[in-house]
Structures are given as C-alpha cells and as structure tokens.
C-alpha cells in the first residue's frame, strides 16, 4: 500500500471556499490561508448545537502497536457522510515535537486523512507559534517585572511560569537563566515545557469567546510575592497584549477530509500532561454546522476520555451521544504479553489475556453513562476466529462491535461503524454524564476517585511538594476546580512498563500545579515529563525535502 503522503498527494483537493460555502458560511466569516486552509468566525447557535450528535472517539491503552484513533475518527466522519448524514470531524492540531520525534504526525492515515496533511503536520496556520509566543512573552514580562522589583516589597519570592517550545528537547527540562552578570537578568532555576503543555494552550482550547479568553489569561497564577500573596497576570496588566497575540489563533481552522468532507482542526494539548482535547470552539462548530460531530480525545479512555468527560464537557455544557473505543488485535495481544515480533500471528491465548485491557476501558466509559461501540481496526492478518471472539466477547460486556477498514478503504470501510453509531443515536435516549467526582469534593478525594474508579488503583500518596502546593491551592480558594492527572499513557499505573489491566496499586502524586486560568488542577503522577525527549533514531532522520516535495512525513 502507498504511504500516507503518497495517498494524500494523489487527492484533488477542493478549494476551501467551497468547503466553507457548503457549510453555510458567508464570505466575511472565512479568512483563507492559501487555497486549502481557512480560519472561520461564527456566533454560537446553542439551539443548533444542542440538536447535534456528538460522538467521542477514544481508545484502549496505547502501546507500540498503536490503535489508529485519529484515523478511525476521520473514517467514521467519512462513513457517516457516505450513508447520508452530514458529519464533521473535529481534531487536535499535531505538535512538531512528536512529528519529528517518535510518534509522527496526527492527520490520520491511509484513505482516512485530513488534508493538506503536510501543512497540518508542520506549521499549519501558526496557532502553535502564537501560543508559544504568548507563553514566552509572558515569561519575559514576568522576569522583567522581577528585574525592576527585585529589591522592593513587590518582588516575587517564587515564579511559577515556565517557557515553552514545540520541540522534544530533554536538555531544556531543567536549566538556569539570567547568567553572566546583573545586566542579563536574575539567575533563576527554571526550565521549558513543550508547547502542548502550556496553560495558554489549555486556555485557548477551553475558552468560548475572546472575552472569556482574556478573563482566563488574567487569572493565570504567575507566582507569589514575599508576603505570600498570589501574583496573577491581571496584577501584571498584560492580558490585552497576550490576547493580541492569540486573537487569530483562537478561531477554528477549517480543512477537509480525503473525501472532501469538512474538518475542524484546532488546539493540541497532550492527554498525558494536559486535558488532551481539541478546542470547545471547534467542537461546537462541528455540532453547529453538522448533524454529527466526531471528536477524539488523546490516548486511552483513562486519560483523554476521562478528561474530555470530566473537564471539557463540564466547561462546554456538552455531552456525547455515544463513545467509540478503538483497538486492534495487535494492541490487545501486546497487553496479553505476547512478544512484539509475534503479534501479527494468531494467538488466542494472548488475545484472551490482553482483552482485559479492553474490558477496563469499556467499564470506564459505561460508568460515565456512555453507550460503547468497540471499533476494531482490521488488518489483513486478523483471523475470523479472532474477530468473532472479540465480537462475541463485546456482546457479553454490553458493548456494541464494528469492524473498521477506513485506513484501506476510506469512508466505505467505515460504513458498518457509521451505521452502528446512527443506530445507537437514533434508538437510545441521550444520557447525562455521570462524572467521576463532584466539584465540591476535596482535591484529594477527586484524585482518589479517578485512581480507584477509572485506573482501578487502591490508594494515592501525596509527595512533599504536592502537600505544600495543596495548602496554597486551598488558601486561594481554588480547590473546587476539576483535576487533570498528568500520568504515563502506557499504563493504568504510573509505571509505563506495566501493561494489561493492573489493580490495587498506589499512585504517587509528586506535585499539584494550579492552572487557574484554564480552570483545573494538574496532579503530576510519578515521573511524568512535561518536556519529552527524542528517541535514539528520531523521525527527523527520514524527513526531507527532495525535488520540491516533502518526503518521510507520516
């Protein structure tokens, strides 16, 4: 089969103006970025949004095999359009860090991609650059404030704000700035996070208007003064300047699927270190302009799925009508501890052992009140015996089942899945979300409820830094915010090597970070890194520009 980029290049793209016009957008609502990309402006029509059918796509615990969640999201939207439903997919923007690192791009794959894939995977419309600039401008402004107030009562005893870059660079995790004399600043221990981990990324994705964006930015906690009082962006007086850097980035990006359907790609927080969902603006745009809005949440249901339902849905006032859980036989076998070299071979014992991971994710989604459809991304080496076993097993667990071949066949390969989604939406009453915790619960209770109910651990431990931070959070009256656990994506535990469906373990919370502007508390579990590193052989080694064309991009 041809590579993703080869398939993408063979597609005759429609002009973005036609995509926008088909949605009912007027010329003044469209700002084109070349022929095939645009930003849109629109006012919420809450009545239309409420009538839209939101479908959440999540996955089993990721591993080296992957599951194809983004590909399935695009395929499902294409499949829905094939059977006569007006469907729009809403996804996150790819980060350059994973794109040039280990994971690759995030525009789907095969015949279920969003296009133009090279632009989407690289600089796109500049949203990540705007967020990086706003974040680092704020860092410079805080350091400048400290420079001129270092010997006064207004000086800051502690600065919490860190710089970001959209690269995987372990050397920047911990560093000292302001060296080589007093004219170059104040020597400070600091560090960089990756751009998707920036609170400004989360703020952009959770804001519902430019006014909301400004208010959230004003509420960012930057540090503490010597008298112990908090210091916010509103105290620095620079929220307006940051909004000017973000005003264009705030608008959703309109592109198209490989089959010419509309797609909104906007925002890109990671689900292992942030809340892992595309913007509320993009999701509501998909609901407003389509009958079905298909959106994905990063990594497994325990990370992006949990945060989508507990954080994003709360903030946006939305609720999915069904949840699609993506998996593959290879992924299941890896969770059954089958050797990686053998996962393409039939192995019923390994499949039966690994399917406990699927079971945990089904239970997770069902406890939120979701009707679950297990979407099996089918490969040529999958046997009828394996597929029939998974299908029968899903029925026993109260979950629907559908085969997806969107990678190889596009929308035609996702018709079975699309019909199953429509059947559920049209024949089942919409259910309210059963949240894992109440906002009035204590911070520790919220974390423990996630750990015990979603991860199936038995306990939590707060480290010294977490206890110190918790006291400050309570003193600020911010303890009623939702909790966003930053944890490895590869396991329900904090140990990335522990596959399957572990139970009865402890989660150690190293620190609590108040993202006051975004409106949630980040609980850092174990040794999770907010700045990833590069693998021994990064993807950058195969990406090239040859004879006027990009090669090696996936």
Question: Helices and strands in order, then pairings?
Answer:
Blueprint: H1 4-9, H2 16-23, E1 30-32, E2 38-40, H3 46-51, E3 53-59, H4 69-82, E4 87-91, H5 96-100, E5 108-109, E6 112-115, H6 117-121, H7 127-149, E7 156-159, E8 163-165, E9 175-177, E10 188-190, E11 192-194, H8 199-206, H9 210-218, E12 221-225, E13 230-232, H10 233-236, H11 239-246, E14 253-257, E15 262-265, H12 280-289, E16 292-300, H13 301-316, E17 322-327, H14 329-335, H15 348-367, E18 372-377, H16 384-396, E19 400-404, H17 406-409, H18 415-427, H19 443-455, E20 459-462, H20 464-475, E21 483-486, E22 506-515, E23 520-525, E24 544-546, E25 549-551
Helix pairs in contact: 4-18, 7-8, 7-11, 9-11, 14-15, 15-16
Q: Note poorly predicted spans.
A: none
| Largest β sheet strand count, sense and barrel closure | 12 strands, mixed
Tally of alpha and pi helices? 20
How much helical structure, as a percent, in the residues?
25-40%
CATH superfamily of the largest domain: P-loop containing nucleotide triphosphate hydrolases
Find the structural class using helix and strand composition. alpha/beta
For the record, the CATH class of the largest domain is Alpha Beta
Mean pLDDT over the full residue set: 94
CATH topology of the largest domain: Rossmann fold
Q: Give the number of domains.
A: 3
Based on Cα principal axes, name the global outline: globular
CATH architecture of the largest domain: 3-Layer(aba) Sandwich
Oligomer: single chain
